[in-house]
Amino acid sequence: MAAIVERWPDFICIGAPKAGTTALFRAIGRHPQVFSPPEKEPRYFAYKGSRPHFLCPGGEESADAITFDRDEYLRLFGRCPSTQKTGDGSTGYLYHPEAPANCRAEVPSAPLIAVVRHPVDRAFSQFLHLRHKGIEEIGDFEAALDAESRRIELGWRPGWHYRRCGLYGQQLNRWLQYYPREQLLILFHEDWIACPSETLARVFGHIGVNADVAVSVTRDNVSSRSPRWTWLHHRMMNDNAPRRGARRHLPLWARDAVTKTVGAFNLKPGPRLDPALRSRLSVAYHADIDIVESITRRDLSHWRSAA
After folding, report:
1. Is the pTM of the predicted complex or chain greater than 0.90?
2. How do strand 184-188 and strand 112-116 relate by DSSP bridges?
């Protein structure tokens, strides 16, 4: 076996999930000065050195997809040319309590990028995502929120932590215990959707590549849609022999192209969150939103009101 090239990522996209982080990371990878690793979400710094065990539907499948071994993680970036930058885009880092310390220990100078979204919208999008995968058995969003604490006690993975994943103020403060504020670029989902080119220019400047380069932007994973044919959606999303073979033999861009093509005709707009319910559920986040406003100097009063 070839010796491991100790190349760590130059920048880290730390999340949050269902906030456009995946689409952002893919867009960054289209920059000519950026190398895209073969795995888009290794989650190494969340589970460094130890494979987790999740006692929930699809838990073992999710654990199998995590890169927790140091050498395996370094292989993801070993082919990056010295003239390019490379990064890790794992949506779970913002939420995971051990990720900041683990990240600081290995890449203390890496620029960080966080993307946050209205916490109730984010939770609803995550709920629909798991419903579409066929692994969320509760059909009512509010009932799924009520089940969250019990599920966490039972060891369900963070994908089911609908409400807690939206406490961005607490999570950002945890990262800021290990990194200076200027090293953490905090973006908002609404800006990413409305002004993708301007948002990308900020990101490119933050990670140290040419900010004037224009790259294509796709809407990967930034909105929740319903499958026309559930069996096909499950085949594309869940663990199976064809997907495992694709991960071994196809580069990330090719896998993304297949997913985008199939999704274009199989996915339709999904259900919308009732504005009254959104406003009522937002109350639980008001204190945390205050923290986000303090950190970002951004007026988020619209997060506290109905859509």
Report:
1. no
2. parallel
